[in-house]
Amino acid sequence: MLEPLRQGLPPLDPAAVSNAASCALPARYEAVREARQFTRRTLDHWDTGERFDDVCLVVSELVTNALRHALPAHHPRACDQAPPVRLHLMRWTERLVCAVRDPSHDSPVARDSDDFSAESGRGLFLVDSFADSWGWHPLAGTLNGKVVWALFRLPHKPQPSPAG
Fold first, then answer.
1. Which of 124, 118, 130, 122 is nearest to 3 (CA)?
2. H-helix or E-strand containing 123?
3. What is the per-residue pLDDT for 54?
4. How many whole angstroms separate alpha carbon 143 and alpha carbon 140?
5. Are 46 and 38 in contact, with CB atoms under 8 Å apart?
6. 46 DSSP 8-state letter
7. Contact (Cβ atoms closer than 8 angstroms) between residue 147 and residue 9
8. 83 closest CA partner among 27, 40, 164, 149
9. Cα gap 25→47, rounded to integer Å
10. pTM here?
11. Sign of the dihedral defined by the CA atoms of residues 54, 34, 28, 78, in that order
12. pLDDT tens by residue, 30-75
């Protein structure tokens, strides 16, 4: 389990993306709630609410991990600076990807814990349990840091047939 560390997204045709949305998140823990609210509004708008609970849980975990582990301890958490974490949601016909970008180059690390009553340390376990696949990759070019992503399969919705 938790094998897919450092892998790119499975092949998805970028031209087939039907919807995309993103939001910048400030370096404060209230950003987790903001990310959930953004996710709910976006999935409702895209009429993909049937996966909301799974996607929202994973978004919460990925954003929490970015805030907790990807920001340096001395990173200022002031409101006037550019947000260091960004949430991206992308929808294809039958797939949804949520991706969280952060400034750290460190790979996500799953903690070994058999204590399921622990209040922290299970984030990647939950991501692995609720997403259909997940992984991460370093950013290139002028962008610094990494992206941790999770893919969700969406139920096929047949297109309405034209009246005839």
1. 124
2. helix 123-130
3. 95
4. 6
5. no
6. T
7. no
8. 27
9. 24
10. 0.79
11. positive
12. 999 999 999 999 999 998 878 899 999 999 999 999 998 877 665 5
Q: What is the rounded distance in angstroms from the CA atom of residue 131 to the CA atom of residue 118? A: 21
Instruction: Please give the Cα distance from 89 to 105 (Å, whole number).
Output: 21
Q: Are 163 and 22 in contact (CB under 8 A)?
A: no
Select from 26, 30, 39 the least CA-distant residue to 71.
26
Average pLDDT by stretches of 10, the chain with 164 residues: 49 71 91 96 90 94 89 56 84 91 84 54 84 90 87 77 58
DSSP structure string for 63-115: HHHHHHHSS-TT----TTSPPSEEEEEEE-SSEEEEEEEES--SPP-PPP---
Given a contact cutoff of 8 angstroms between Cβ atoms, the answer to whether 4 and 16 are in contact is no
Segment 29-39, tens digit of pLDDT: 899 999 999 99
User: What is d(CA 12, CA 10) in angstroms, rounded to the nearest whole number?
Assistant: 6
Three-state DSSP class for 2?
coil
Contact present, 98 and 55 (Cβ < 8 Å):
yes
